[in-house]
Amino acid sequence: MNSEIDHLLSATRDAVRDAALTAATDCPEVAVLDRLLSRPVTPRAVEPAHAPVVPGWLEASVQAAATPRERRLADALLAAAPSLRWIAPYQPGDGADALAAGYAVTMLVGTGIPSRPGYQTPFVNPDVLVTFTLQAPDLFYPLHRHKAPEIYHVISGAAQWRRDGEPWRQRLPGEWFFHASEQGHAMRTGDEPLLALAAWIDHLDAPPPVLEVDEPA
Predict the structure, then answer these.
(1) Structural domain that includes position 18
(2) Where residue 215 falls among pLDDT bands split at 50, 70, 90?
(3) CA 91, CA 100: separation in Å to the nearest integer?
(4) In the chain, N or C: fewer CB atoms in 10 Å?
(5) Can you say how many angstroms the Cα of residue 74 is from the centroid of all Cα atoms in its chain?
(6) How far apart are CA 152 and CA 132, in angstroms?
């Protein structure tokens, strides 16, 4: 296994463990993620790929990571990025055409059974899915939902999220927050790109979300 990808896994585990031990966190579910992510993984080779948004915004997002924990994680991601498989999960015709060029995801840990064509994961763990997402500036990710409960961590870039029944809320670097099963959520960036960690902690066999394209930007 590539040493940079090994280091990324270690940095991710450290960041999750640090958050789980922080009593003041607004996301107690991160303790579940810590427990799942600490389990043994099976390395698996991946074929590197780079979605359109990555060359334009990944390095800027890493440089914008300001706090020590987020900077360590971002630096590890940047070092491993050439060996990772970055996928644009939405294509023109899926309801938000700008996402095809402005949004990408790379899997770090997963079940090994791809939920979308082209997905590959360098570490297999049947109990958890951990990804990194990159969203370009001034980009709207429409409302969507999935059965899998999801934890988000903002590594860099101030963006806004909205959950079912709630107003838009600014989320800042360092924050961890939770989307319950089938809880609709949307996000939008402003002047900065958004680099985040996203993890599913149950129902890993849930199908990929379908964009609810009537959601107004």
Answers:
(1) 3-200
(2) very low
(3) 5
(4) C
(5) 12
(6) 10
| Beta strand extents in the chain (DSSP E only) | 42-43, 86-87, 103-110, 123-124, 129-135, 140-144, 150-156, 159-163, 169-171, 176-179, 185-189, 194-200
d(CA 5, CA 148): 25
CATH of the domain at 192: 2.60.120.10
d(CA 61, CA 153): 14
pTM (2 d.p.): 0.94
Q: Are strands 103-110 and 86-87 parallel, antiparallel or unpaired?
A: antiparallel
- What is the predicted pLDDT for the residue at 216? 46
Interatomic CA distance for residues 76 and 175, integer angstroms? 19
Give pLDDT tens digits for 135-148: 999 999 999 999 99
**Of 159, 141, 52, 137, nearest in space to 95 by CA:** 141
Task: Give me the mean pLDDT over the 102-107 stretch.
Answer: 96
First to last CA, the chain: 42
Give CA–CA dist 187/142, Å, rounded.
7
Domain count, the chain: 1
Residue 22 in domain: yes
